[in-house]
Amino acid sequence: MALIPKLISASAIQRSYKKVIEMAKETKEPVVILRRNKPEAAVVDIDTFEELSKKADSYDELRALRTIAQSEDEFKEGKAEKFTSLSDLLNED
């Protein structure tokens, strides 16, 4: 990924959105849309979007597995509390 992203103003994308999409597809780099000189959104090609989505899903899954492992360790060490209802859990101090 480029160190400095490609930037385009919101008004420029309104005039030439096809060029922006082609640029994102060809370079596989995000094109950042500026509104009042502040980043507002980014355009990426569909392959990059799908790759990022898969990575995000994998990260979420890994984080969930780590949390489960930590919970199991706490349970084995006797640090976990057993709740019989959701209201018991929510009323915990």
Detailed description of the structure:
By secondary structure, the chain is an alpha+beta fold. It has 2 domains: 1-44, 3-Layer(aba) Sandwich (YefM-like fold), CATH 3.40.1620.10; 45-79. 58% of the residues lie in helices and 16% in strands. The chain has helices at 10-27, 46-76, 86-90, and strands at 6-9, 31-35, 38-43. Strands 1-2-3 form a 3-stranded mixed sheet, with helices on one face. The longest helix is centred in the middle third of the chain and has 31 residues, at 46-76. The protein starts with 5 loop residues before the first strand and ends with a helix.
Question: Helix amount, in percent?
Answer: 55-70%
Unreliable sequence segments: none
CATH topology of the largest domain: YefM-like fold
| Span of the ends, CA to CA | 47 Å
Question: Largest beta sheet: what is the strand line-up?
Answer: 1-2-3
- Rounded average pLDDT: 89
Estimate the strand proportion: 15-25%
**How big is the Rg?**
23 Å
Q: How many β-strand stretches?
A: 3
Number of helices: 3
Name the CATH architecture of the largest domain: 3-Layer(aba) Sandwich
Order of helices and strands: EHEEHH
Give the number of domains.
2
User: Structural class, from helix and strand content?
Assistant: alpha+beta
Highest-level CATH class of the largest domain: Alpha Beta
CATH homologous superfamily annotation of the largest domain: YefM-like domain
**Rough outline:** elongated
- Please summarize the sheet with the most strands: 3 strands, mixed
